[in-house]
Model the fold of this input.
Amino acid sequence: MYSIRLFIRTQVVLIPLFFLLSCLTYESVSVRLTEKTPPGVSVPLLVGGFHLKGGVQHRVDLSGLRNSLELSLRERGFSVITAEESLAILNRAGLDAGRELTVDELLRISSRSPGRIWLQGYLDVQRTPDLAEDRWQLALGVQLIDLRDGQPIAETRVYGHDLHHVTDRVVFECTRRISDSIFDLLSP
Done:
């Protein structure tokens, strides 16, 4: 009987500890690049181009990344132009969604776009060999660009360290953290 109680108490203590340690796997960094007053949450956002930056490219689907980011931004209360509409705007302008756009290209799509802030970024997934097993490092970076002048407003990044797997759930957790950072950056 005593060993069963001890086992239950150990489990009660270990479950929050495992949860706490899993939260320490991610690190977020955000910086506001302008002194302008943040536009607020009601400004329409366009989830634009994302590209894979080196690393293991077969691990992540970029369309799933865009959809996850769109969903997590909507959950935070943002007005988001759908990823399909954003890609259609790029196609009409003859631009590729798999790279960062220049200022001239951003100004070219601003007249075709109902949104005001363009989100573009990168995803980098690297394998880090360990003696016991392979681990993964993940970096998701997003740049917020004002389409009125093509200038960056802010940047935010999430780093995942020492991950056992890179799954859709891990990518969704990173996009959730990115949307929290975007909320903080755009709120006045």
